[in-house]
């Protein structure tokens, strides 16, 4: 099959346009709620996040985060859980200017797993909250942020 310049350009334009349309459809599914991630107090953030549901502390959530963070700008965190029917996971850092660090909606077909890197302003409790239809389950761990990794 002989391909000339004109046919090549038409085909490239068609595929490029299709790709852009598909990309736009994917981007339309993501939603950013700026009020959730606005600076505020820890108590106000928790009140807004909980929407009147109760919190139950549990050991069925695994919050894997270092106890001492040498660099508060890049603190690795992983959350897993064996609780059934989790709809979303949120990570809240008590002493941050913007306490809500992450809020992720989960699909029911997927395993409960979230991994990220947080920015933690100072030594603080980090909360992992798992939302079900009726209530929130939580676990917290204290992270000590050091300057230069001295542990002091």
Description:
The chain is of the alpha+beta class. The chain is built from two helices and nine strands; from the N terminus they run H-H-E-E-E-E-E-E-E-E-E. The chain has helices at residues 5-28, 42-50; strands at 55-57, 61-64, 68-69, 75-81, 88-93, 100-105, 113-118, 124-131, 136-145. It starts with a helix and ends in a 7-residue tail after the last strand. Helix content is 22%, strand content 34%. The mean pLDDT is 84. It is elongated, with a radius of gyration of 21 Å. The strands form two sheets. Strands 1, 3, 5, 6, 8 and 9 form a six-stranded mixed β-sheet that branches. It folds into two domains: 1-30; 42-145, Immunoglobulin-like (Sandwich).
Write a brief structural summary.
This protein has helices at 5-28, 42-50, and strands at residues 55-57, 61-64, 68-69, 75-81, 88-93, 100-105, 113-118, 124-131, 136-145.
What's the structural blueprint in terms of helices and strands?
Blueprint: H1 5-28, H2 42-50, E1 55-57, E2 61-64, E3 68-69, E4 75-81, E5 88-93, E6 100-105, E7 113-118, E8 124-131, E9 136-145
Parallel strand pairs: 1-9, 3-9
Antiparallel strand pairs: 2-4, 4-7, 5-6, 5-8, 8-9
Descriptive labels:
single chain, 152 residues, alpha+beta, Immunoglobulin-like, 2 domains, 6-stranded mixed sheet, 3-stranded antiparallel sheet, 34% strand
Number of domains: 2
By CATH, the superfamily of the largest domain comes out as: SoxY domain
Show unreliable segments: none
Mean pLDDT: 84
> Biggest sheet: strands, sense, closure?
6 strands, mixed
Strand content: 25-35%
- Total helix count? 2
